[in-house]
Amino acid sequence: MMLKDSLPKIVTEELPGPKAKEVLERRKNVVPDAVRCIYPCVMEKAEGAMIEDVDGNIFLDWIGGVGVLNVGHTHPDLVSAVQEQATKYFHGMFNVVTHERYIELAEKLAAVAPVNGDAKKVMFANSGAEADENAVKIAKGYTKRPNIIVFTGGFHGRTMLTMTMTAKKAYAHGMGPFPDGVYRAEYPYLYRKPEGMTEEAAIDYYVNSLKMVFENASPAEYVAAIVLEPLQGEGGFIPAPIEWIKAVRSICDKEGILMVADEVQTGFARTGKLFASEYWKEAGCAPDIIATAKSIAGGVPLSAVITSTEIMDAVPKGTIGGTYGGNALACAAGLKVLEVIERDHLVERSAEIGKRCFEVFGSWKEKYEVVGDVRGLGAMIGIEFVKDKTTKEPNAQIVNELVAACAQKGLLIENAGIYGNVIRFLAPLVITDEQLEAGFEIFENAIKEAI
């Protein structure tokens, strides 16, 4: 049986196994402790949604490189595309020599990205943080304004600017002082809305929180962009309610502010659409700029910023770009990712996976007092764990126990959330039904053992 069709199986007496333990010891000696890892898995090879470690243990991957592997590990078509490109050339900085793969991928993304404007342009960088930082530079270049607004629970990266934009300061501890001109409003975390408030009233409450930034931090005429995730990742897999998005879009239109969708984690079929902001466009509130990365090239470093020609061409020359942006190998992989998503109907598969996950996780919400909320879009789903459904007191302890227990049984899951009490579902979209059900079984057994 090929690895991609396998089920999780632990063959060593303990995890990590002997070979993995040796590698992990070497890791401790030369890798910074701040680059933290709690998992006992040392990869030997991987296919689809499965990883085989150096000791022959087989793990089911529900983390997917934290949203990078929507088309799965080592997709054979991607392998071939990168190999073919590698025989021609690896790299030529795009400011110096033009290569067609960059242009072709830009054309395809411009054609499908749900941003405002008829004509669109695309720039490439290497990481999600770079995409977000360039999106901000582009917004400032167009509006000639100095400030931006971000949200509670938001995660945008670990560069100096994106650490400032990121809400959770555990990601920025001891790194200040931080850049000025970044202000924060409350994100609509409806599960934890003020007690006794209806959802409709809560939307108004969160919209007012945004407006108060204009009163208390930066007048609207100095705000270049409002940057938000359509579905918060590190913040706890919290979807932005569409009525709130409509209100944000209205505020942006009224005040001349650009609306930036951080689709680093939500892009490339993860949410039941190619881009999550397609849901916004369908509701008449498309963003002005999309920043995206992660699954764009199936694991080869690449990111993109997509906006209208009008906005992109207003940016001062020399302020965006970079040595590796739009690297030839990455662009070859990116083109193949788009082809695989369309050919293999991964947008539809994402919706199917999400439907099954909501059925199963929803049943756990009924059965177990510790499962407080289940939410998401498509196959990007968060399960929030609490100590008590009434008080909703966050239960980070059980989440830590579940991550460890599932890994010991061959299922890799990861936490999220501002309280560390959410399990995120980011399995590759090529996961088989049998693998999905095997994961449910391991996960639920771990819950039963933990309560």
Task: Please explain how this structure is put together.
Pfam families: Aminotran_3. It catalyses: (S)-3-amino-2-methylpropanoate + 2-oxoglutarate = 2-methyl-3-oxopropanoate + L-glutamate; 4-aminobutanoate + 2-oxoglutarate = succinate semialdehyde + L-glutamate. One of its GO terms (biological process) is gamma-aminobutyric acid metabolic process. This is (S)-3-amino-2-methylpropionate transaminase. Belongs to the class-III pyridoxal-phosphate-dependent aminotransferase family. With 451 residues, the protein is an alpha/beta fold. It has 2 domains: 3-61 and 345-450, Aspartate Aminotransferase, domain 1 (Alpha-Beta Complex); 80-343, 3-Layer(aba) Sandwich (Aspartate Aminotransferase, domain 2). It is 39% helix and 17% strand. The chain is built from 14 helices and 17 strands. It has helices at 18-30, 64-67, 76-86, 100-112, 128-143, 160-165, 199-216, 242-255, 277-282, 309-312, 328-343, 346-367, 396-408, 433-450, and strands at residues 43-47, 50-53, 58-61, 120-125, 147-151, 182-185, 223-228, 231-232, 238-239, 258-263, 289-292, 303-308, 371-377, 380-385, 411-412, 414-416, 422-425. The strands form 4 sheets. It has a 7-stranded mixed beta sheet, with helices on both faces. Strands 1-2-3-15 form a 4-stranded mixed beta sheet. The protein has a 4-stranded antiparallel beta sheet with strand order 13-14-17-16, with helices on one face. Helix 3 packs antiparallel against helix 11 (328-343). The longest helix has 22 residues, at 346-367. It is globular.
